[in-house]
Design brief:
3 copies of one chain form a homotrimer. By secondary structure, chain A is α/β, with parallel strands linked by helices. Chain A contains 7 helices and 5 strands, in the order αβαβαααβαβαβ. In chain A, strands 4-3-2-1-5 form a 5-stranded parallel sheet. In chain A, helix 2 runs parallel beside helix 5. The longest helix of chain A has 16 residues.
């Protein structure tokens, strides 16, 4: 991640070449399969363009970098009227429907040749993407340092703001 | 969208007039009625101020620019304790409650004189707002090019990052 | 909030000291307890670093600054497979489970020594954080001016965009 992008003067609006690479700062706050993909896809895309990338995992998003949970993220069919195959709510409440919706979306993701969450995380670490676990909400969510995947740093909201302050794009997902 | 806003020097912090209009970049990832309104309201507001606007529709958000689905977006009463009229969860699970919650919110939106989704999309196209359908997740969600409303371009995450890199405000909704 | 942070030249990329403090602009669109904490934690952190902070409460997020509702925000156990203690969906649909999930998360937040929502709001007002209630969605959500906590200003999306246009970090939560 040491690539320097020399953007044309008109791109930055102040007539000077950029001295640092573009930067993408994201907060990943969701622990569902469909909530994990957007930050991971954006991180991989930005890294491939030479951007610096940092993801700050907080609240349910901590599951994405949890040793045991990151391979078991699920899609909820309930209360989601936009789910591709609509599930009547009462049926959605039956045990087993979350598993079915998850299997269904995983199949589509495979068809679309999307890497799995674990592969995206490997790519992120290899490309130098910074992965932060939110120290404040680790306590709230009962996540211990030993629960985190290797390569994840524990940091507070101050670290996120410091990183995001100089980002070209910041997103809360 | 060719208006140039000459911002005062202290607004940009580097003592130079801006050479380009303000820009708003949004990702619209939700396919519910209440998830569609924020990007559409912000797009209309920003365009009316002379900003360049781009919306990147991904995952469930693809429903907002889907020929058949954009007129049928729904509100889920379930698992949403902040829903104005609280619906006990078990009752929310009964078929028909999603329709009731949707009708209710549509009524309020009409009372508040908010345009409907289709009207907001018309306004967006007329004002030059860029509408992108996420090529990566179209496959995952089973959305084909022929399902998209006219005036929508298909693009990847790279296109979003390119657009957002020079945006003044970027939001993931 | 009049602190001026003189950032090093390489932080801004254009070789000039900053003339204004850093700025964080947030939209708070969720009315759940777990949806309220991220903007409140980020606001308190940013303010403690001398940043200017503004939060624009819209849709369900209006509950966070509602006189009666801000002390009663809830966590929904349903349709949330990432909930720390998984609740089978059918069980989650039983009345009482929302209350149980809420009590559980409040307990963890207390253990993690997180202030309550009302305390965070007090801190925000004391630090000069700007609190805006979205005028467009107040009508949609049936929220009246008299329902709002003191210190909250009513403003439209234009006000948010004006504030966010010069923000270093903008987030939709």
């Amino acid at each position: 991640m040491t690539t320097t992008i020399a953007a044309p003067a008109d791109a930055t609006g102040h007539g000077q070449a950029r001295r640092r690479p573009r930067r993408l700062a994201m907060v990943a706050s969701k622990g569902t399969l469909d909530g994990a993909y957007p930050p991971l896809i954006l991180a991989a895309t930005a890294a491939s363009l030479g951007w610096e990338v940092g993801i700050f995992f907080t609240f349910y998003g901590l599951d994405i970098i949890h040793r045991k949970k990151h391979r078991k993220l699920k899609v909820a069919p309930l209360a989601n009227p936009a789910m591709p195959v609509p599930v009547p709510n009462l049926l959605g409440a039956l045990p087993g429907m979350t598993a079915a919706a998850t299997a269904m979306m995983k199949g589509w993701m495979k068809d679309a040749k999307l890497p799995e969450v674990a592969q995206f995380l490997d790519m992120a670490r290899e490309s130098g993407t910074k992965l932060f676990a939110c120290s404040t909400t680790m306590g709230v969510m009962g996540v211990k340092a030993s629960d985190l995947l290797p390569g994840v740093d524990i940091a507070g909201a101050t670290a996120f703001l410091d990183f995001a302050a100089d980002a070209d794009v910041s997103l809360f997902i």
